[in-house]
């Protein structure tokens, strides 16, 4: 170890001088030669020092016989305190400027086989903070929209959502909604289902996909979901026997899964649930399931055709499509 006391280290030198006096007194107590104290704890209390902390430095000093071992050292292995290599930092900076968050950056870099270093989300955040990129800027949001969402149908976000049983007075039936949101355009479609078993979800998803393809010309290349059993998961051994997995296989759609405990990865559909609750569900009740389905159908038309979207700079989702769908898309949806 290099001598940390080279140069002007006045505070360290004062600490060593003080600790040398403490060591002399401590050894007198241990030899029962101290004129005032019999017990170490009484001496430590009188000198206002932490007994445990003192013994740590005393033990280190006795082993090395080097005075600088009486001063605090940096905790933890030194290799952990070193900054990541410049190439890794540049990758993090590049991905951050594209609008990715710390979790997305960590996943992207970890998935690249040529990377020796696998940064954690907190490590990515530290790099971003060092370069003043820890806060998302408007230009970064726009860059993410342009680069990551290059075209409609590139990626769909899917999820299920539980509806309060009080939404239909005097009904105890559980109701759910399954929805798919196009990552690029934010065009969405949702369907009411009465169970979240894999078969019911599969049929609900099939209806959503049919509407999005027939009336919005959106045909997905990939769909991302959480690891719920209704969607299967990356550990499903026989995907052909799982209804939802089989549906995607038959439609030639790649199934992606979010990282466990990272719902931010599927944030667009999570945000859709919040919007739907605020606009349609909260402080509202319905006389029947049929009325709820009809109101949801009308809401989906409003959401896609009339509601400005903050994530699209105030544009309506339908304005992001390559081909504008017919105005009767909602009415057509009710017939499918």
Characteristic key phrases:
single chain; 336 residues; 3 domains; Nucleotidyltransferase, domain 5; 12 helices; alpha/beta
Strand content: 5-15%
CATH homologous superfamily descriptor of the largest domain: Ribonuclease H-like superfamily/Ribonuclease H
Order of helices and strands: HHHHHHHEEEHEHEHHH
What is the count of distinct domains? 3
CATH architecture of the largest domain: 2-Layer Sandwich
Which strand order does the major sheet show? 3-2-1-4-5
Describe this structure in words.
A hairpin with a 5-residue loop joins strand 2 and strand 3. The longest helix has 21 residues. The termini are far apart. 45% of the residues lie in helices and 9% in strands. It folds into 3 domains: 69 residues; 65 residues; 179 residues, Nucleotidyltransferase, domain 5 (2-Layer Sandwich). The protein is elongated, with a radius of gyration of 31 Å. It has 336 residues and is of the alpha/beta class. Strands 3-2-1-4-5 form a 5-stranded mixed sheet, sandwiched between helices. It has 12 helices and 5 strands.
């Amino acid at each position: 170890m290099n001598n940390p006391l080279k140069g002007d280290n006045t505070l360290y030198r004062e600490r060593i001088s003080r600790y040398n006096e403490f060591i002399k007194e401590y050894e007198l107590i241990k030899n029962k030669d101290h004129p005032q104290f019999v017990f170490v704890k009484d001496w430590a209390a009188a000198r206002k020092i932490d007994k445990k902390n003192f013994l740590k430095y005393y033990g280190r000093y006795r082993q090395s016989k080097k005075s600088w071992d009486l001063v605090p050292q940096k905790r933890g292995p030194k290799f952990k305190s070193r900054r990541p290599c410049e190439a890794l930092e540049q990758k993090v900076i590049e991905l951050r400027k594209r609008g990715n968050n710390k979790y997305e950056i960590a996943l992207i870099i970890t998935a690249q086989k040529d990377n020796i270093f696998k940064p954690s989300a907190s490590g990515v955040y530290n790099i971003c903070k060092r370069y003043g990129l820890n806060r998302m800027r408007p230009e970064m949001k726009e860059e993410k929209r342009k680069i990551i969402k290059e075209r409609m149908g590139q990626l769909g976000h899917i999820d299920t959502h539980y509806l309060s049983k009080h939404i239909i007075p005097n009904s105890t039936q559980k109701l759910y909604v399954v929805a798919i949101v196009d990552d690029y355009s934010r065009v969405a479609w949702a369907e009411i289902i009465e169970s979240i078993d894999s078969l019911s979800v599969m049929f609900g998803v099939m209806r959503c996909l049919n509407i999005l393809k027939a009336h919005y010309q959106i045909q997905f290349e990939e769909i991302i979901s959480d690891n719920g059993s209704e969607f299967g998961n990356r550990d499903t051994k026989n995907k052909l026997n799982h209804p939802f997995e089989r549906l995607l296989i038959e439609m030639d759609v790649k199934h992606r899964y979010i990282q466990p405990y990272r719902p931010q990865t599927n944030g667009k559909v999570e945000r859709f649930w919040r919007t739907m609750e605020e606009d349609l569900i909260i402080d509202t009740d319905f006389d029947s399931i049929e009325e709820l389905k009809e109101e949801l159908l009308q809401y989906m038309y409003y959401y896609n055709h009339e509601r400005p979207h903050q994530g699209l700079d105030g544009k309506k989702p339908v304005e992001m499509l390559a081909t504008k769908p017919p105005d009767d898309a909602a009415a057509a949806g009710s017939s499918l």
